[in-house]
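sorry for the late reply, my laptop died twice this morning and i had to redo everyting from scratch. anyway the thing you sent over, i finally got around to it. pasting the sequence first so we're on the same page, its 308 residues, then the predicted structure underneath. double check i copied it right bc i was rushing
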Amino acid sequence: MAGWSYPTKDEVADYLEAYAARFQLPVRGRVAVERLSKRDDRYLVTAGDRCFEAANVVVATGTWPTPKTPEFAPELDPGIRQLHSNDYRNPSQLKPGAVLVVGAAHSGADIALEVASTHPTTLSGPYRGEVPFNIEGTAARMLLPIMWFAANHVLTERTPIGRKMQQHVRAGGGPLLRVKAADLMTAGVEHVEAKTVGVQEGKPMIDGGRVLDVQNVICGTGFSKDTDWIELPITGEDGFPEQKRGVVLSQPGLYFVGLPFLQAFASMLIGGVGRDAEYVARHIAKRAPSDSSGGVTLNAPAVVRTNR
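ok and here's the structure:
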């Protein structure tokens, strides 16, 4: 992989496989964790007919694991092809005819640009800003190190601007990244600032009453958090686990990494989660030996995504 390039999904997977092999980590793939509970001072992790018992559990299931679809989706005409961005792969999945992409954050914009080459495409929803330079260009080489420093040391829970950003990141869509508004316009994508809010006679309706005659609807409406499988009182009013730098103070031995804004903006990114993971690992190591024997880490391949 060349310098100043972004790794592909296959390169990331290869790196993770090599990392696990080098350190001989006992990774168990294709294990869907269904329940996390507690008996006395031990945690019980249930996965089908398997049950793991541990004094320490690290939940590393990522940011928002469950695809979120609009309330109006079931009301659409059954003849309309519906997909969530989680299930979209390429335009060959679509029916001939027009496409509506719901949600104008970076996923919706990326998909709209791609399908516009083969289908008349409308993108609905407001833009939430965009990175004002080509993230693979010369400007990125100068600006991204500065932005990365800010993501780790300025936009944190300790600063007013960081706490404000935390609320935005956890509640709203992200800005346009690789694909910009100008790219969409050039590709012929019709951008409608208003959101898609309902259905009229089986067709999607934009806020304001406009009805779109489309044969495909792709929902780039994001994902929602899911902690229902954790049968412990750990969540706050916002629905996110109450923790301090990944440590759940109310449940000794329970930890989180990879949450959006766990301690900084970078906490949910591949390059930033390592700092949080190191802090959690040190915290586990400092626990009394009688308390820290045995542990289970729940990572992305083990989370119940496919059957929730």
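The chain has seven helices and 15 strands.
thats about all i looked at so far, will dig more tmrw
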